[in-house]
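Can anyone check this?
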Amino acid sequence: MYPRLDKKLYQSPYIEMFYCLGKEWEDKDVFIVIGYSFRDDIIKNIFINGLKKCNKKRIILVHPGAETIRDNMFKDYAS
């Protein structure tokens, strides 16, 4: 991710990254996410909507606050 506060999310390169993430979600069963807090609503929604479509997919979150993120953002899908 490009760490910019003023990023234009619907322009290149972001739109391409979101598209690729959505396509990868369709093709993969397990996602390993390292050091990401899911504060970006667009990316968080890609994961949440993907889990809604197929709750057999899994996210492995490597983050110091992983349990808090799981409980706050993915509680309906945690196992």
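Reply from J.R.: I decoded it. The chain has a mean pLDDT of 84.
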